[in-house]
Specification:
Distance between the termini: 71 Å
Organism: Aegilops tauschii subsp. strangulata (Goatgrass)
Family: Belongs to the purine permeases (TC 2.A.7.14) family.
GO cellular component, one term: membrane
Strand content: under 5%
Membrane topology: Multi-pass membrane protein
Structural class: mainly alpha
Number of helices: 12
Order of helices and strands: HHHHHHHHHHHH
GO molecular function, one term: purine nucleobase transmembrane transporter activity
Shape: globular
Number of domains: 1
């Protein structure tokens, strides 16, 4: 069920699709649409990958304390850097490489620390290795999905309008929802839902509201992620998605009873260092672009004054 709610909120995109789909497009900027069969296969493939990724993340969160889970998820930025280099022609710099190494080292610290199992959360005993492996695999697959989305926007759709973002979100999440619901019935877990609702401490209404708002939150998150992929890059999207990473272990300690030992503190600090390295690289890139634009503007004014 935790996997299903990550994609079943896709009908929320229908009103936006209908609204932006009716808007007239300028003929000068119109882009030829790819063949229906090709784009359908791409969206279906992304949906299957999303469903598998959601499933691994769901089991990983079941088998790991939230603080440990959040820190291991930092590796998705490292994976994304590799996929972006090969699939999206992302350029590496010393600061980006430093960020990748630090975030990978941060997750490795958590992985070798068996003290991470110490928690008051309802985590199954002895499941730490499996949870760690699932989180690592899910992070790699999530990074691959982001790079494939950027590749689709750049090479297939050749457009990054809001309608294109909503279309990808709707159809890929629809495919993911179909796969997830099929898995729910095939696994037989659907038969336990009534008991799960009855056993929910806050009651049936609270159970339903939790699922509903989780589904809505996931659709808003997906919309933001895909929008960033379309307008900037998959690597930048992954950086932004890890902004809340340093806060997750702290929140888990306060509200869920997780223990914050020295290794986790060190891993969190290293992760923050790696994140700031990447942000500083973007600052340098932005300053370089502004400098070039300022120089061109100054040259243009000089030429204009000379001709006058």
């Amino acid at each position: 069920m935790a996997t299903v709610v990550q994609s079943c909120g896709t009908p929320l995109a229908i009103p936006l699709l209908l609204y932006f789909g009716r808007r007239p497009k300028a003929t000068a900027t119109a882009v030829t649409r790819p063949p229906l069969l090709k784009i359908s296969a791409i969206y279906a493939g992304l949906g299957v990958l999303l469903a598998g990724d959601n499933l691994m993340y769901s089991y990983a969160l079941l088998y790991l304390p939230l603080s440990t889970y959040s820190l291991v998820c930092a590796t998705q930025l490292s994976f994304n850097a590799v996929f972006s280099y090969f699939l999206n022609k992302q350029k590496f710099t010393a600061l980006i490489l430093n960020s990748v190494v630090l975030l990978t080292f941060s997750a490795a610290l958590v992985g070798v620390s068996h003290g991470s199992d110490g928690t008051n959360s309802s985590v199954p005993e002895g499941k730490f290795p499996l949870g760690f492996a699932l989180t690592l695999s899910a992070s790699a697959l999530f990074s691959l999905i982001l790079s494939l989305m950027q590749l689709t926007f750049d090479k297939v759709l050749r457009s990054d309008t809001f309608y294109d973002v909503m279309e990808m979100q709707f159809w890929s999440n629809t495919a993911a929802a179909i796969v997830s619901v099929a898995g729910l019935f095939i696994s037989g877990e659907w038969s336990t839902l009534h008991g799960e609702m009855d056993g929910y401490k806050k009651g049936r209404v609270a159970y339903g509201m939790t699922l509903a708002w989780t589904a809505i939150s996931w659709q808003l998150t997906t919309m933001g992620l895909m929008g960033l992929v379309a307008s900037v890059s998959s690597l930048f999207t992954n950086v932004i998605s890890t902004v809340g990473l340093p806060l997750s272990p702290i929140i888990a300690v306060i509200f869920l009873g997780d223990r914050m030992d020295g290794v986790k503190v060190l891993a969190m600090l290293v992760a923050v260092w790696g994140f700031l390295s990447y942000i500083y690289q973007h600052y340098l890139d932005d300053a370089k672009v502004k400098k070039i634009l300022a120089e061109r503007s100054a040259e243009h004014r000089t030429v204009k004054l000379a001709t006058e």
